[in-house]
Design goal:
Helices cover 37% and strands 23% of the residues. With 345 residues, it is of the alpha+beta class. The longest helix is centred in the N-terminal third of the chain and has 36 residues, at 3-38. The protein is elongated, with a radius of gyration of 27 Å. Bound molecules: adenosine-5'-diphosphate (ADP) and magnesium ion. Adenosine-5'-diphosphate is lined by residues 125-127, 129, 133, 179, 181-182, 185, 210-211, 255, 259, 271-273, 275, 298, 301-302, 306.
Length: 345
């Protein structure tokens, strides 16, 4: 081979190498961008609503707008259903001296749902615990242990049969006071999911309002979200969990005697009341319910505290939920269908 021919050969070869490398580089870049599209990033925002930490995790082209809309709606629901906020409709009903009060469809919807759960649980869930919440100081944090007589008196004003609905009007009999704190947060989470989907049908993620969690859509469009259930006797500043569930949709709510409580003479008094005795419920320290709607899960988790263990294990599935319950002896109990959620799918 002459020298000149050889140089041309090398030059041509070099071009083919350059072409090959460029081609490979483009291929790698394409794969990279393709995977970027397949695995969308998640926007995360935390805030405080309902006096608790709210975390929104969402993936969507409109993530920013979805997050803002959800937070705004949650604050709206918090104000609207807070029985101690003078601007709230619940405050108005509670302070109308038993007169009829006109309410909108949203209040009717939540109130009817609350009364439905009161009926099917035989009053274990009772939205008229307001008088008890106040008596024990859970409305303003001035906690106290009432006398037996005070409790006997208060119980005369407790009972969901005191709520009367006629068309779009509500009134309370017997000096009863509404408190929808056991269901409003779950309802707000259901709304949040609707809002996310309305902005973007393809949005995925979840909303966690202090242990009331609703799934917007599966992680990366197809995988389970891994959700920890908090150890009810967790140590300060730790996030210790006692169980993990895997969920692609639906909702999960946990009620615990550790959420709001005070301790007097070594005894814990918490914020879920037994409407029959007038005292905080005892026997169960944490109840988690998985259901299609977060309002349902929220109400059922609260109800379990008063339904008791055996009744809950039998009936919660019939009410549309699966339950994970921790009793005061630190033992864990599950309804038969709960195990399904303890494995990835
Ligand atoms: P958290 O708000 O800590 O998530 P829950 O969902 O269990 O807990 O709601 C507890 C709240 O529900 C109480 O603060 C009170 O407002 C209300 N509540 C208390 N006892 C009952 C009950 N037996 N039935 C319905 N609501 C209740
Ligand atoms: Mg609840």
């Amino acid at each position: 081979m002459r020298k000149k021919d050889f140089e041309t050969f090398v030059r041509e070869r070099r071009w083919s190498w350059i072409l090959t490398y460029t081609f490979i580089a483009i291929l790698i870049l394409m794969v990279f961008f393709f995977s970027l599209k397949r695995v969308p990033g998640y926007s995360i925002k935390e805030s405080v609503v309902f006096g608790t930490r709210v975390k929104i995790v969402v993936s969507s082209k409109l993530a920013g707008r979805i997050i803002e809309a959800i937070l705004q709606d949650m604050r709206r629901i918090d104000r609207k259903f807070d029985p101690y906020d003078e601007r709230s409709v619940i405050y108005r009903i509670n302070n109308s001296n038993g007169e009829w009060v006109e309410v909108d469809n949203e209040v009717l919807f939540v109130l009817k749902k609350a009364l439905y759960f009161a009926e099917i649980t035989g009053g274990a869930f009772d939205p008229t615990v307001g008088v008890l919440v106040k008596l024990w100081g859970f409305n303003d944090g001035n906690y106290r242990i009432p006398s037996d007589e005070e409790i006997r008196d208060a119980l005369k004003h407790v009972g969901y049969e005191n709520v009367e609905i006629s068309g779009n009007k509500v009134r309370l009999k017997n000096g009863a006071l509404l408190d929808l704190g056991g269901i409003a947060k779950g309802y707000a989470v259901d709304r949040a999911i609707q809002i996310a989907k309305r902005y973007d049908q393809k949005a995925t993620g979840f909303i966690d309002a202090g242990g009331d969690i609703g799934i917007i859509g599966p992680k990366f469009g197809g995988s389970d979200w891994v959700i920890g259930i908090r150890n009810p006797r967790y140590k300060e500043n730790s996030d210790e969990t006692i169980d993990v569930v895997y969920m692609k949709d639906g909702a999960i709510a946990t009620s615990g005697d550790y959420e709001r409580y005070f301790i007097k003479d070594g005894k814990r008094y918490h914020h879920i009341f037994n409407p029959k005795t007038g005292y905080p419920s005892h026997g169960i320290i944490s109840a988690t319910v998985i259901a299609q709607s977060c309002a349902d899960a929220d109400a059922l988790a609260t109800a379990i505290f008063n339904l008791g263990l055996d009744y809950s294990l039998m009936y919660i599935p019939r009410f549309g939920g699966q339950a994970f319950i921790v009793t005061e002896d630190s033992k864990i109990h599950r309804t038969k269908g709960f195990g399904y959620f303890e494995k990835p799918h």
